[in-house]
């Protein structure tokens, strides 16, 4: 019996997740499908229930549903519970939804593998955004013992809410969006978790001139792969990390949860994904 999975979000046409999971389904000769499903926020509950009724065994979750989907799940794993955001859902044979968060490990594992000499403990970070991805990144950095983290969002109230949920020892500082350029001094890591700079979205207006040349700049946006933020940082000589690796690494445990196989990120898959990025 074909096992159906997919990605829900709004929009989802830009996503490379179908390319990744379809490659693995073919590589491991699994009878399954993975499709991108655009769901507007007002339709989330109704459309998710329709996926259950249609026999789906699970789905990934992207913007803007990562927080709201948690309220539709029957239970959450420890990481999703702590973060307050879900990016992977499994559906059992009784139609119950189980929420997981693989973004945390996907983000931090990719950072460590991309910049192996970047020792995380005691560092300072600036995180842009206050959505589901920002929650995962903030949780990961706190868990890795960053000394302090500055959280900056276009809506201050959302940033305060995220800090209140995740920060229990006063390591998260809130800075208003208008003051973002001045918050980069003494920063070791800058992470953009917003959709700003993504193809089809508004640009990220961010001057990184105040960054140390030793700082790492990480943008979770992967379309385009070299965002204006990363281009600006690279020109200054900063080490940069693209969002493609996080996408690949968070996908692995999701695939395993649905199909019982932990897939590999091999050269063939990276080549396929890069061809899609270049051709888009």
Automatic annotation (TrEMBL):
InterPro entries: Aminoacid_DH-like_N_sf, NAD(P)-bd_dom_sf, Shikimate_DH, Shikimate_DH-bd_N, Shikimate_DH_fam, Shikm_DH/Glu-tRNA_Rdtase. Pathway: Metabolic intermediate biosynthesis; chorismate biosynthesis; chorismate from D-erythrose 4-phosphate and phosphoenolpyruvate: step 4/7. GO terms for biological process: amino acid biosynthetic process; aromatic amino acid family biosynthetic process; chorismate biosynthetic process; shikimate metabolic process. It comes from the Bacteria. One of its GO terms (molecular function) is NADP binding. CDD domains: NAD_bind_Shikimate_DH. Its EC number is 1.1.1.25. It holds the Pfam family Shikimate_DH. The active site is at 66 (proton acceptor). Shikimate binds at residues 15-17, 62, 87, 103, 222, 250. NADP(+) binds at residues 78, 129-133, 153-158, 220, 243. GO terms for cellular component: cytosol. Keywords: Amino-acid biosynthesis, Aromatic amino acid biosynthesis, NADP, Oxidoreductase. It is an enzyme of class 1 (oxidoreductase). It catalyses: shikimate + NADP(+) = 3-dehydroshikimate + NADPH + H(+). Residues 119-195 form the Quinate/shikimate 5-dehydrogenase/glutamyl-tRNA reductase domain. Residues 7-89 form the Shikimate dehydrogenase substrate binding N-terminal domain. Involved in the biosynthesis of the chorismate, which leads to the biosynthesis of aromatic amino acids. Catalyzes the reversible NADPH linked reduction of 3-dehydroshikimate (DHSA) to yield shikimate (SA). NCBIfam families: aroE (TIGR00507), PRK00258.1-4 (NF001312). Belongs to the shikimate dehydrogenase family. PANTHER family: BIFUNCTIONAL 3-DEHYDROQUINATE DEHYDRATASE_SHIKIMATE DEHYDROGENASE, CHLOROPLASTIC (PTHR21089:SF1), SHIKIMATE DEHYDROGENASE (PTHR21089). Homodimer. This is Shikimate dehydrogenase (NADP(+)). The lineage of its organism: Bacteria, Pseudomonadati, Bdellovibrionota, Bdellovibrionia, Bdellovibrionales. The gene is aroE.
């Amino acid at each position: 019996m074909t096992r159906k999975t997919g990605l829900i979000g709004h929009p989802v046409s830009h996503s490379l997740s179908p390319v990744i999971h379809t490659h693995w389904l073919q590589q491991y000769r699994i009878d399954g499908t993975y499709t991108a499903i655009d769901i507007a926020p007002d339709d989330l509950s109704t459309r998710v229930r329709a996926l259950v009724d249609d026999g789906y065994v699970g789905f990934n979750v992207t913007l803007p549903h990562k927080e709201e989907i948690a309220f539709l799940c029957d239970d959450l794993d420890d990481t999703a519970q702590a973060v307050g955001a879900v990016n992977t859902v499994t559906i059992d044979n009784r139609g119950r939804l189980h929420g997981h968060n693989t973004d945390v490990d996907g983000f931090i594992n990719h950072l460590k593998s991309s910049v192996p000499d970047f020792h995380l403990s005691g560092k300072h970070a600036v995180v842009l955004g206050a959505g589901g991805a920002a929650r995962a990144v903030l949780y990961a950095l706190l868990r890795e013992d960053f000394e302090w983290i500055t959280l900056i969002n276009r809506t201050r109230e959302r940033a305060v809410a995220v800090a209140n949920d995740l920060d229990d020892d006063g390591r998260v500082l809130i800075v208003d969006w208008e003051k973002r350029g001045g918050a980069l001094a003494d920063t070791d890591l800058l992470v953009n978790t917003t959709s700003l700079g993504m193809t089809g979205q508004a640009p990220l207006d961010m001057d990184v001139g105040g960054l140390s040349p030793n700082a790492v700049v990480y943008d979770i946006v992967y379309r385009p792969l070299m965002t204006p933020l990363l281009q600006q940082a690279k020109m200054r000589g900063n080490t940069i990390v693209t969002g493609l690796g996080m996408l690949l690494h968070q996908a692995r445990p999701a695939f395993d949860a649905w199909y019982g196989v932990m897939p590999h990120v091999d050269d063939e898959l990276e080549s396929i994904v890069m061809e899609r990025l270049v051709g888009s």
